[in-house]
Amino acid sequence: MNSISLCGPSLVRRTCSYLVVVRRFCNRSFDGGNGENKYDCFEEPLKRMWGSSYFDSAMDEKPDVSADETMARPRFSARRSFFEVARIDAGRVLEVLRQDGPGFDSKLALDELHIRVSGLLVREVLTGILRMVNYSNKIRCAKLGFKFFTWSSQQGNYRHTANTYHILMKIFAECEEFKAMWRLVDEMIEKGFPTTARTFNILICTCGEAGLARRVVERFIKSKTFNYRPFKHSYNAILHCLLVASQYKLIEWVYQQMLAEGHYPDILTYNVLICAKYRLGKLDQFHRLLDEMGRNGFSPDLHTYNILLHVLGKGDKPLAALNLLNHMKEVGFDPGVLHFTTLIDGLSRAGNLDACQYFFNEMIKNGCMPDVVCYTVMITVYVVAGELENAQRMFDEMITKGQVPNVFTYNSLIRGLCMAGKFEEACSMLKDMESRGCNPNFLVYSTLVGNLRNAGKLSEAHEVVKHMVEKGQYVHLLSKFKGYKRC
């Protein structure tokens, strides 16, 4: 490594307790992580720990295929046919709903379609309505969602699931129909559906800004229908959901309620709390929690190490980070691409390009092949440092290695090209994205249009907006970049 030395006495000894290790590794000189997050490499894995507990399954009913059909052709063919028919029917339903208005009886038109209502069909239609929501049609989309939800519930041999309730809740939330959303929650409970972490997640994300977050939490703490599997107890489920929603202050409050009720923390509890304390910049409490973990006999898991590596990276402590990686190996944890990516991301925020390059190479030496997230972090490191040539080299390398760039990868490279004044190449990246099956989203368009406008290239920016019209993304951009005419 060019500008730093990684030699010197190790801070880790096999006989060191965990408490001593974290005390030495994580001193109080790092910042509290209050800056804006690009990737949240250290937090996202913890948020996804039990993804199935707060996201409903994609299919909560099986395709209704008769025995004769199953015998007549391969099962996968019947299943594929079921999905295709449901998607075609969903398109027909959405076309009818788009015509809804004065003088048009949408319920009668839906009846005349003579379609088979299934869970998949209902989810496809509601999800389609959810995708239609924008700043100009919120009231209409909320009405269409509720109208179809009511109509489908009246069809024979069909009963709404918790998942369909959740999708309509999400529609109401996006349309800012909060009273309707709460009425739907009450109806869901009355119908005998348990309120899950997914229910909680939708409500807390919606009501947090309105100052209702604590009331939502209190309701779920007291709820007898809150389904909190596979968590140890409901408090952990609530803490985990609050982490997903980035409600760090509420995490502290819920933890105090948890202790008051006589519940004891486990490693998940501590990991969530440590994240919250770090995000809030409460460094003394961050360290006290680490001490408490050790005293209570909890050893760090892969998520704990991930948090500590981010802290050390952002605190620009590559030597301590290297020692922690070595300690992980000594205690039986092999650092993976996640841990190296988290460390590199933290070091990039500290502006230590040399350390980023070193640990990227060390990761490969340790047999960890970088994934798309790791490559994207490195590309961004080079872009921020003004080393566009290295960013493009890294981009080419990831493609050669079989890693498919995502929208964040392209967004970083487009930003770098714009910073270097290479606007023609930046615009051509849109075609490159699409040729690789990666559709540009609002983030990419916003970066490109914003930089073109700032450079006075209004005609080029207008061309990008026209491209957005074709892709159905123009409404979001026009709401941000005012002054453009609708194409």
UniProtKB/TrEMBL annotation:
<feature type="repeat" description="PPR">
    <location>
        <begin position="301"/>
        <end position="335"/>
    </location>
</feature>
<feature type="repeat" description="PPR">
    <location>
        <begin position="371"/>
        <end position="405"/>
    </location>
</feature>
<comment type="similarity">
    <text>Belongs to the PPR family. P subfamily.</text>
</comment>
<feature type="repeat" description="PPR">
    <location>
        <begin position="161"/>
        <end position="195"/>
    </location>
</feature>
<protein>
    <submittedName>
        <fullName>Pentatricopeptide repeat</fullName>
    </submittedName>
</protein>
<dbReference type="Pfam" id="PF13812">
    <property type="entry name" value="PPR_3"/>
</dbReference>
<feature type="repeat" description="PPR">
    <location>
        <begin position="336"/>
        <end position="370"/>
    </location>
</feature>
<keyword id="KW-0677">Repeat</keyword>
<feature type="repeat" description="PPR">
    <location>
        <begin position="406"/>
        <end position="440"/>
    </location>
</feature>
<feature type="repeat" description="PPR">
    <location>
        <begin position="266"/>
        <end position="300"/>
    </location>
</feature>
<dbReference type="Pfam" id="PF13041">
    <property type="entry name" value="PPR_2"/>
</dbReference>
<feature type="repeat" description="PPR">
    <location>
        <begin position="441"/>
        <end position="475"/>
    </location>
</feature>
<dbReference type="InterPro" id="IPR002885">
    <property type="entry name" value="PPR_rpt"/>
</dbReference>
<dbReference type="Pfam" id="PF01535">
    <property type="entry name" value="PPR"/>
</dbReference>
<dbReference type="InterPro" id="IPR011990">
    <property type="entry name" value="TPR-like_helical_dom_sf"/>
</dbReference>
